[in-house]
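Curious: why these numbers?
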Amino acid sequence: MNRPAQRSFALAVLMMITMTPFCSWSTSLADPHRFATVPALVVGFMGGKETGGVHYIAIQLDRDPERRGPTILFNEIALGGGSAVGKDWKEGVRLAVAAAAEAIGEDQRNWTVTIKNRSYGSLTDGASASSAVAVGIMAAWRGDTIRSDVALTGVITADGRIRKVGGLRGKLEGAAHAKIHTLLVPMGEARTPEWDLYELGRQYNVTVIEVSSLPEAYELMTSHQP
């Protein structure tokens, strides 16, 4: 990304984080960019115990008039950049772009997508945030607002299915600490031999809902009216 583009994107991210962190803006003639920010759940280990947290992923979506895309840019450690992300995280974003384009009937060759991961950790990996990224891309394109009290975790597939992830107990606890009141998890993962997220959610005042597809998660996470 060249320096003028970096400055423009950094300013947009600053506006999103300090003013309206979950909003999406639709395109106007004066501003061809579209933006969204989505929460993402992470887990780590501290003192041998699994702990969860929430960070935010800023998305900029632009149209490529020459249809050379999808072009995906990861704004990482460089000037104005976000936190570093690993190979699996990036592959998850590529699947998210494909799934979002499929869900809204757009040709992903028309898109340039810039992703900035805002995390306290020096490196984030894994694809569990990919479904949330897909929701963010759709919201940016449509101009819908992402709800501030809902988070989603799950691995997205190119055809929009949401697959299972791990660390859900820690993620639920992290969501509760971040004042998120609804947690969307992949179908079949709310109650397992390892945990009962429904009961744990009641203890933390978090409603747990299972979802199986991108359109289903999108309706629960945004202002979009079907």
